[in-house]
Amino acid sequence: MSILLILNYAVAIFFAVHAVRTGRQMYWIMILLIFPLLGSLVYFFAEYLPEVRHSGVARKGARVVKSIVDPNRELREARLGFERTPTVDNRSRLAEALLARGDYDEAVQEFQACASGPYAKDVKFRRGLARAQLLAGRHAAAAATLEALLADSPRDAGSDAALWLAQALTQVDETRALAAFDHASHVHNTTETQAAYGIFLASLGRDAQARPLLEGVVHNARVGTASSRELNRESIDQARAALKVVESRGG
């Protein structure tokens, strides 16, 4: 059997598996098996390509390519937009672009300007300010922003705000941080939360409490989907490294 024929059937089988997993009509499988070459071409253009083009992975890939080709484009356009029309929405866009660029201190300034005056209680701007403060290493300020936000708008603040508060408090007050992590694990029980909680416990030498959390993150990564692993790659890698430290201490 020639290599081309083997490749032909391999592609047809790939698309057949895709058809089954995505719940396509059974006639696609018959077409792919009976007419592997023609069927693969038709399936690719009729079913596979439209799905890929509209998938989150494709959109993410497009954004990555754009960021590589012109990494400063969004920041440049956001800054120009604000200079032309200095509205609070354009300032918010500029702040987000600065945050994405890693200019955390300037992002803090812009978000502070957004979350002032008539917009002092705006949830979106206060969330942005808290993220910028946290990334800028201004942990006490971030904690204060988040505590006020959660007190004023507990429903609209977002469950991830509970995790941000816990992370901010790790550099402010150990006891309050532990309580905040315990709360976050109930209202925002994600891979990121479990990893951050386990890592913080390990940093305090509480290995017996940290280990099951870190092991849970590593286990879920092993049995989970590829998209989930990619989404939580940083947290998984950090949890895996922390688990090795815990194991080396006999925890």
Automatic annotation (TrEMBL):
Keyword Disulfide bond recorded: no
Record-linked InterPro entries: TPR-like_helical_dom_sf (IPR011990), UCP030959_TPR_rpt-cont (IPR014562)
Origin superkingdom: Bacteria
Entry's transmembrane regions: 29-49
Entry keyword set: Membrane, Transmembrane, Transmembrane helix
SUPFAM superfamilies: TPR-like
Protein name, per record: Tetratricopeptide repeat protein
